[in-house]
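hey can u check if this looks right to u? its 121 residues, i copy pasted from the old doc so theres a chance i mangled smth
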Amino acid sequence: MKFLIDMPLSPTLSRWLTETGHDAVHASEVGLHAASDSKIIERARRETRTVVTADLDYPRLIAAAGSDSPSLILFRGGSWTEAGVRTRLAEILSALTEDEIQGSIITVDRDRVRRRRLPIA
């Protein structure tokens, strides 16, 4: 799968995903360190990447666009450690197929994971 890791999360997450066989980039590695959320969404959509973030604005922006992309994995519920993000992301990637992730917003809380299909009406 292809991922774009947003600024609130560590660049080491993109390296870990790459080491596990995915095509992952961190926003800071592709000149998006100061980009607006809209620019990051646009880039992810253009490159068919799933955005991985802890920024709570993304679901609203994606829903407002009425689009079925980009897909989003949102970590919410306070500060996440790098190890915690990796553990939960590994669980999600094991539990869901690429088709289930594509065209979805995956919301990750400490005790549950929810999936909503895009577009959101």
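The longest strand covers residues 104-108.
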